[in-house]
Amino acid sequence: MGQKNSVEYRVEGRGDIVTGPSPFDDLPVECISNIISFTRPRDACVVSSVSKTFGSAVQSDSVWEKFLPLGYASMIPQPRAFSTKELYFALCDHFLIEDGKKSFWLDKASGKKCIMLSAKELAITWGNSPQHWQWISNPESRFEKVAELLSVWWFEIRGKMNTRLLSLGTRYSAYIVFKTVNKCPGLADLPVEVGVGLVGQEIPKQLIYFDGYMDKDARKVRGELIYFDGYMDKDARKVRGEMRDVMKPKKREDGWMEAELGEFFNEKGCYEVELSVIEIKSPYWKCGLIIQGIECRPTRSR
């Protein structure tokens, strides 16, 4: 027999650190593989460094088979010779499904399904009117076309998605993925109402900014001019409160921006989720926004 791996481990109840052969090295590799298959992909990658025995166990097809979603064979973009582990990580790279209208991938850490609906899959008010919106190619987009806002007063985007496309028993967050042009005049620092929820149920609403940028004159209008001799009226207090509660966008690794629309729990996978992004209260015209789509991915711990 080969020399066993020397590791440090803590003796339960005493807190002593002992250096010596791993107590797991006496277990069959198949047994360790079976144990690891009940963890998550991230955990499997971490424990692979514990010892050579664990490293061998993590390479087992039986481990990565458990991490793959049901029906994964139909999700493979192209027929290729993969090991099961290689197939898992191949599915973690996004690829297009349903005639290029959706982007699909697995969350690398958890193996949960993720989806992005393209702008073409969304119902955009005036979206087919060339004077209001135009459909353009963008080399940084996953999709063939993205929607560019030229000029609208009535800004409304809605979408629906069947939860069967997502992992069961999982809480998801939805994000609108976009870019701004020239700081998105008429919309950048304007609170926009958004919502996410199951169709047929009450959908909670919140507010987002597309840019979050506010120049000096805008701060003056929203801040200084709401005071009269140190008094702030009810409407002014409401404005201040809304400004604090508005969610600001964040920059993504792929160069796009995203703003969170809300969360939902996919319990049974037999419902539809409704998503909305609406601003119809402001009297000003809005422009300078490029929409790639709306993305749903597992909610991270906050």
Characterize the structure shown:
With 302 residues, this protein is α+β, with helices and mostly antiparallel strands. It is 19% helix and 32% strand. The chain has helices at 29-36, 41-47, 52-58, 61-67, 84-91, 216-222, 234-245; strands spanning 6-10, 17-21, 95-97, 102-106, 113-118, 123-124, 133-136, 146-149, 155-162, 170-180, 192-198, 205-208, 227-228, 231-232, 250-251, 257-266, 272-279, 289-298. The strands form four sheets. Strands 3, 4, 5, 7, 8, 10, 15, 16 and 18 form a nine-stranded antiparallel sheet that branches. Strands 6-9-17-11-12 form a five-stranded antiparallel sheet, with no helix packed on it. Helix 1 packs across helix 3 (52-58). The relative contact order is 0.16. Mean pLDDT is 80; it is low at 1-12, 215-233 and 236-241.
**Chain-averaged pLDDT:** 80
Computed structural class: alpha+beta
What integer value in Å does the Rg equal? 25 Å
Strand content: 25-35%
Number of distinct beta strands = 18
Query: What string gives the helices and strands in order?
Result: EEHHHHHEEEEEEEEEEHEEHEEEE
Distance between the termini: 48 Å
Pick out the low-confidence regions. 1-12, 215-233, 236-241
- Share of residues in helices: 10-25%
Write the layout of secondary structure elements.
Elements: E1 6-10, E2 17-21, H1 29-36, H2 41-47, H3 52-58, H4 61-67, H5 84-91, E3 95-97, E4 102-106, E5 113-118, E6 123-124, E7 133-136, E8 146-149, E9 155-162, E10 170-180, E11 192-198, E12 205-208, H6 216-222, E13 227-228, E14 231-232, H7 234-245, E15 250-251, E16 257-266, E17 272-279, E18 289-298
Helix pairs in contact: 1-3
